Predict the 3D structure of the following.
Amino acid sequence: MHRFFLPIPFAEQMPITGKDAYHIINVLRMQVGQQLQIVSNDQVSALMEIIALNEAVVSVRLVERLLTTHEPSVRIILAQGLPKGDKMDFVVQKAVEMGVSEIIPLSMDNCVVKLDAVRAKKKTERWQKIVEEAAKQSKRDIVPQVSLPMTLKQLLTNKQDVLLKIVAYEVEDRRGLRELLQAQENITEILLLIGPEGGISKEEFTLAEDKGMQSVSLGKRILRTETAGLATVAAILYETGDFGG
């Protein structure tokens, strides 16, 4: 069933406007009496029935509230070193489908991609659109946010209050991800750092460690940057009981 995120508080009767109304009327060609799901900006999920349509507004009314959450018990913040080409589009889409709550693109020492302010803004707007579509498709209860690209130093300052900060580091050979997760109690939020194609520089790794990040190995094989983050997210969700657990 189709799901739409509405930028207004929940009410028993609500209007759907803008591009979502256009999509319902002209693309899906839905009719009065058909049902859809909405998530309001105060995070109420509900099954609604269409009661009226015109060129710009779809009016819906409550059938029932949906009490089952689709969100993981652990909030994952994915800090992804900017990859080449359109790989970030793929990472953003799949991360949202899997349950990531926030995505932070990182401009790192070994990034091939260098974005000026104008290109960074355009890219971020594109990624946010991908997020919105992925959130609808995967029946998320929130629309995760993509921040403007930032440096590692900015990330560690902005997220210093996150208690569990993990960096996947190819040189690490002492501690695996599962070992680290099993040593934790009552995990509610994780900051996950994934480097770009060229990896994390020694200077960046030292900075990350100094700011409380814990390094883990992802196994004996070296994963591509667009694979590493998604594989780690899946492992975290499985280990915390939200992904096939």
Observations:
- The chain has two domains: 3-65, 75-239.
- The longest helix spans residues 117-137.
